[in-house]
Amino acid sequence: MNSRFAVMLIIAVVMAGGAAWLAKRWVDSQTGNVEVAQPDTTSVVVAAARIPFATRIEATHIKLTEWPKDNVPEGVFTELEPVIGKVTQRDFYANELLLQPQVTDHVGGSTLSAIIEQGKRAMSVRVNDVVGVAGFILPGNRADIIATRRGGSTYTLLRNIKVLAIDQTASRDQDKPAVVRALTLEVTPQQAETLVQAMKTGTLQFTLRNPMDDTEVNLAIKEDTPAPAVKRKVVRYSAPAKFKVIRWP
């Protein structure tokens, strides 16, 4: 009897201890005292405040923050020093990650030269409020360029051309139309030659594209393409009939 009593007592004590532990866990969960395992993190570089497009990054623009290791995208920076001095390829907002493809090195000159795609050139074209689509073309937009020869023929010269800057402004902060005197375009060397030739032989007009419209690729129509023939109605001159006068006796 004594041994059976002892076994039952031990079982009762164990069950009471388990019940007390479960009760404590429930109370802690209700009061927020349950310890939650902290995720494994790493330091990454983010924007300390808004950084506009084509801005040379300074130390005050960026900061380090902890980011979950299992959710770190490819191309992040883990130190501040390698980012300072680079130029942004787009707008960044506070606490947004800076990724390597979105910034570029600035080796000298203007910040605009750092954002030109490799193999392309920046070229400025003089415009007025009509040619510049009433000022609605802004940095970052894409446009088609229509050329008109002095003879009267009109054709699309270049398509889907990126606008790098308007006048001397490359910032994309603007959202209101502004009358400008020049557009700086991103073109290939061949497109630059075509554009210069077209400006010498006629006038240019810009048409603004929807930014989501990527159905057409950049094309350049060669300047030596013959203009379409214009049919003219030819009126032939007919000499008047000759009459002979005969005297009547």
TrEMBL record:
CDD domains: SAF_CpaB_FlgA_like. Residues 42-104 form the SAF domain. It comes from the Bacteria. Pfam families: RcpC, SAF. InterPro entries: Pilus_assmbl_Flp-typ_CpaB, RcpC_dom, SAF. NCBIfam families: pilus_cpaB. This is Flp pilus assembly protein CpaB. It comes from Methylomarinum roseum.
